Amino acid sequence: MRLKILHRTEYRYDAPVSYALQRLRLVPRSGATQTVVEWSLTANGAHDEVHFIDGFGNDTRLISIDGAPHAILIEARGVVETTDNSGVVGKHEGLAPLWLFQGATPLCTAGKGIASLARSIKGDDAVEQLHQLMHAVRDRIDYRIGTTHSETTAEEALAHGEGVCQDHAHVFLTAARLLGYPARYVSGYLRMDDRDEQTASHAWAEAHVEGLGWVAFDCANGISADQRYVRVATGRDYRDAMPVMGIRLGQAQEELAVQITVEQ
């Protein structure tokens, strides 16, 4: 499937910003499930500082802002050709060792709820266990926007019983690691069947299975990732893979507007 993607992020300020630094992870890379046909990333109103591939294999850009601009427009757009590998992404690559994806993080630390969830998963086959876990997470957390936030932990989301794709991914990661699987967070895009306009980018999880490598599980939709998915960044949790993050100095008030379209 050939997907055309536009991701526009605009920041507006009511006064000049004394200084801001932002990290962008908005450039997908070609791999087993996708080929980047064309892609561009621009940041109007900001200065390019450095461009590198981080330890997780993510294309990463740093941009800075200071002085007069009252608006910053970050725009990522391009075309990606995708294939359906039944969720199998393949062998582990990059500088980060597999064991790094087995440890807890501040957002993915198991409490009694996730420990109980992990104990409920039965079966000897790894893929069967992980599919059970995916459906169990979906059953326990209803998809509902506005009930959680970017700092909600996996244990909090499970106890609340509501959340978004980020929360589904965090609970899956935490439980999968308890079961002995390296697991990582994935941020990217999903082509919806009924619309081009998206309210936000998408997130799902991948677990590493002996003999298969990384396998993708989207708990929010109850499926393994197929040709409708475009992977952009990975990490131990949301903080490692979030599309835009940064710091800002000064008293200026900020307004944020995001536009995302994913069309075939």
Distance between the termini: 7 Å
CATH class of the largest domain: Alpha Beta
How large is the radius of gyration? 19 Å
Largest sheet: 5 strands, antiparallel
Strand content: 35-45%
**What is the CATH topology of the largest domain?**
C8orf32 fold
Question: Residue share in helices?
Answer: 10-25%
**Total of DSSP H or I helical runs spanning 4+ residues:** 5
Strand segment tally: 16
Determine the structural class based on helices, strands and strand pairing: alpha+beta
Let me know the average pLDDT: 94
Q: Could you say how many structural domains there are in total?
A: 2
Shape: globular
Query: Numbering strands along the chain, what is their spatial order in the largest sheet?
Result: 3-6-1-16-11
Low-confidence parts: none
CATH architecture of the largest domain: Roll
Which series of helices and strands comes N to C? EEEEEEEHHEHEHEEEEEHEE
Report on the structure:
By secondary structure, the chain is of the alpha+beta class. It has two domains: 2-81 and 244-263, Immunoglobulin-like (Sandwich); 85-241, C8orf32 fold, CATH 3.10.620.30. It is 18% helix and 44% strand. It is built from five helices and 16 strands. The protein has helices at 112-119, 126-140, 154-160, 165-178, 238-241; strands at residues 2-13, 17-27, 34-44, 47-53, 59-67, 71-82, 88-90, 142-143, 162-163, 183-190, 197-198, 202-209, 213-217, 229-235, 244-249, 254-263. It has a five-stranded antiparallel beta sheet, with no helix packed on it. Strands 7-13-12-10-14 form a five-stranded antiparallel beta sheet. Helix 3 (154-160) links the parallel strand 8 (142-143) and strand 9. Helix 2 packs across helix 4 and helix 3 crosses helix 4 (165-178). It is globular, with a radius of gyration of 19 Å. The protein starts with a strand and ends with a strand.
